[in-house]
Amino acid sequence: MLKNIVMLIAEYCIGCLNGALLYSYAFKHQDIRQYGSGNAGSTNVLRVYGLAPALCVFAFDAIKGVLGMLLCYKVCGRGDLIVTLCALAIVCGHNWPVFTHYKGGKGIATTFGIALTMNPWIAVPAFTMAMLILAMTRIMALGTVTAVLAGAVAVWIFPNQPLYARITIPILFLMTAYQHRGNIVRIIKGEENKFEFGKKE
């Protein structure tokens, strides 16, 4: 029990290592949350700083999810409850980091990393779907939320999926939807801003 508690704290702290904040502080001497949409995520980095920094930030946050899950598997095994709790702890650390006043990102890259570790055959097509929807609509939130929803449905359709994946990925979809609730309302109203490729705000 103590080992699991320590692991959950460690996973939360891993999640708190926010790529967007680290990049903006280290290379721009700024707080990314003061610019663009105010979100500490790769999408806002793309808006404010450009493509290359955004790709680096996305990769950092995705790898954070992968390494966090591999650490969980190594130390605690693959019990359904502990794996689910570790995954949620990582995303909670990213979204609500204690070290930066609980104002972080929306968890998309980290969710992708976690899903990639659990089942790449679901995560990669879902990511591809997000990119296709973005290319067609130029609405980032629509692509990401739809892709995570597709992953949450697919994990129940595909046979022989571990229970922890069938629990975790739908919960991560709900967290994604919650973090994008403002975007979803604007999409429904037709008021969501479209992304201008190749243009920094």
What does this structure look like?
- By secondary structure, the protein is mainly α.
- The chain has one domain.
- 73% of the residues lie in helices and 0% in strands.
- It contains 10 helices and no strands.
- The mean pLDDT is 92.
Please give the count of helices: 10
> Would you identify the regions where 5 or more consecutive residues have pLDDT less than 50?
none
| Biggest sheet descriptor | none
Mean pLDDT, all residues = 92
Number of strands: 0
What sort of overall outline do the alpha carbons produce when their principal axes are compared? globular
- Rg estimate, integer Å: 16 Å
Strand-pairing-aware structural class: mainly alpha
Strand content: under 5%
**Sequence of secondary-structure elements:** HHHHHHHHHH
Estimated helix fraction: over 70%
Head-to-tail CA distance between termini? 48 Å
User: What count of structural domains?
Assistant: 1
Write the layout of secondary structure elements.
Elements: H1 2-15, H2 19-28, H3 42-49, H4 51-76, H5 80-95, H6 108-118, H7 120-137, H8 140-157, H9 163-179, H10 181-189
Features:
mainly alpha; globular; 201 residues
Compact description:
This protein has 201 residues and is mostly helical. The chain is 73% helix and 0% strand.
